[in-house]
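Hey, I'm writing a tutorial for new members on how sequence and structure tokens pair up, and I'd like a real worked example in the thread rather than a made-up one. If someone can provide the structure for the chain below, I'll link this post from the tutorial.
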Amino acid sequence: MGDGPARPELEALAQNIYPLAEFTGPRYNAELEATFSEADLFVLPGTGGLAVQQAMSFGLPVVVAEGDGTQDDLVRPENGWRIPADDLGALKAALLEALGDSARLRAMGAESYRIVTQEANLERMVQVFIEALVSLRVKVEVGNSRDLA
């Protein structure tokens, strides 16, 4: 789903290696959720903000292009593939590997879901911020008490 300048190339690639692939174009809201629920794999060969986490929350293994580093903690060999940006060969290799083993793909999807529910979620982010603020407060209090002595 989605659209972009690489769509014609990706459609041609899919025709050769996985002719059952569908290219639906952009999807939003309930239509987007329904599409995620039906998918076996999420591929984002460009940048996409929260799209990777959203796909993972539906238990999908992911193929993403390396970009600004935001996927580094999310996409691991256990749940997906990080490929160089603008590398059609790497994308093709990742797709061939991903689509070649459906049992592995399901296990990787389960790991994606585990990562976003247990590690990379809003609750964990808030916890890390609180820990950082408490640590900063302790350092400030210790520094102030030394100044008073």
